[in-house]
Amino acid sequence: MSKKIDPITFAVIKNAMDAVVDEMAYTVIRTARSEIVKDVMDYSAAICDRHGQMVAQAKTIALHLGAIPEAMTSVLARYGDDLHPGDAIVLNDPYEGGMHLPDIFMFVPFFQGGELEGFCVVICHHTDVGGRVPGSNASDSTEIYQEGLRIPVLKLYEGGKINQTLERIIGINVRLPDRVLGDLKAQYAAAQVGLRELGQLFRLHGSDTMRVYLAELLDYAERMTREEIRKWPKGTFRFTDYIDDDGLSDAPIPIQVAVTVHEDHVSVDYTGSSPQVRAAINSTLSYTNSCTYLSVRCALKGDVPNNAGVFRCVEVYAPEGSVLNPRIPSAVAARALTGYRVFDAMLGALAQIVPDRIPAAGEGGNTVVCLSGQREGGAPYIIVDMICGAWGARPNMDGVEAITNASQNLSNTPVETLELQHPVRVESYELVADSCGAGRYRGGLGIQRSYRALADDALLQLRADRLKFAPYGLDGGMPAAVGRNLLERDGQTTSLPGKTAMRLKVGDLVTHVQAGGGGFGNPLERDPAKVGSDVWNQIISASYAHEKHGVVVDGASGQVDMDATRLLRKQRMAAG
Length: 576
Description:
seven-stranded antiparallel beta sheet, alpha+beta, 3 domains, 20 strands, single chain
């Protein structure tokens, strides 16, 4: 830290910036209209400096925020000399800095004393942005033009007044204009909170001082990141994970990564990953970059600031024309699924570098269940439910269940909200016993959730994965159970593929069983008392304990037979 930087002032400004972005995030929740924003919490908030570099991010969707640099580059290229107080620039075009069409970025410039000093940034996943299917998030689209309204870099507000032309274009192209336009106004309201709080900070410390300290925030994060990387073993570390398929063919989709640790930075090369696919699971380069930055950040100590200073230490290469850097007009609506597998592949490589910090694979990312149709009277409804599930076991403790994937910060939609607002009944929402990967530390359990259609001719869209390739274990830990999709109709139960779209009849029951989290360490080294406790709590069965852990336990009482357990484990270890 420079001698010109006062450490107390630095800490005050750093914490103040964190508080500002979190207050922006709370404002979104308080003012949003749709469940996917206010209940699922699929949104993000950040602040960038006058150069467009992200200096603070809220405790929101981490996978969004690493995409800000490319989006900001597009904004500055279009309006760099034409930014004024009261402006708000929006975009969602994946080929102009965006990620996928439902995620609409909003950048609101901050001025102090007539000078541009930064930007308040809010990203929301919108319930619908038009296109061929409700929700605009189908995995079976084959080109971007099917996916909805593409918004290039445009001003939605100019001088504090809304652009009524753009507002009307958006409103007429989406199925639920009140919710979409309402959420856009929530984004604008959150940005206004950010402007107000930034104004107080700049008036308190002065613009010159704030510029120095915001630059130091970035340099500080970069220094801390480089300092940690210097301690990492040098070399190239590889890992490959797989997406089950793209939904249009049965071919698995490899995500291959090579992480090279240099003296004080890392380079990440995705050469060998699948070429771009026909279906909509291609990941835009901005999103691939974001997933990569996040993965490296997860391997760092917790006190490294979450800003663009970390990004300076990570070089990313994804071949053009690959599933991680597709060419236009490739479809990308379901790109999050690929992002989750990038995260898993990155953690698999990082586990070879810092094995004491990296968990086994989680459930594979959230499952998206989209149900849409018409209520009685003809009014449309759209449910976009994201099922969040399980973490893999960690190097020193068990995984966690019923929790957002580590790459996100989402929440499962409350059952009461779904049933109150839509013609659907949730008939099961529970943990799945025996779905965890066994290990010295076990993975988290997967989640099961069932939906009964109460309106005829509902359109079901499912985007799920890890039905074929199980979440991996680490250090001898076992993989978790894979997921399943089931349809119960007229008393008959059939399996559904991971990615599908179909019509439902009244009374149909759709069930998604999510994968669990992988295990960490040798399962035969797990404390028998913990195994017995898991059996007693119905996390695992007595047969699972016997087969996976070599523990003999009474299924009714959870009591462990220690003599029988020692003998069984001795036999297992002797057999190799």
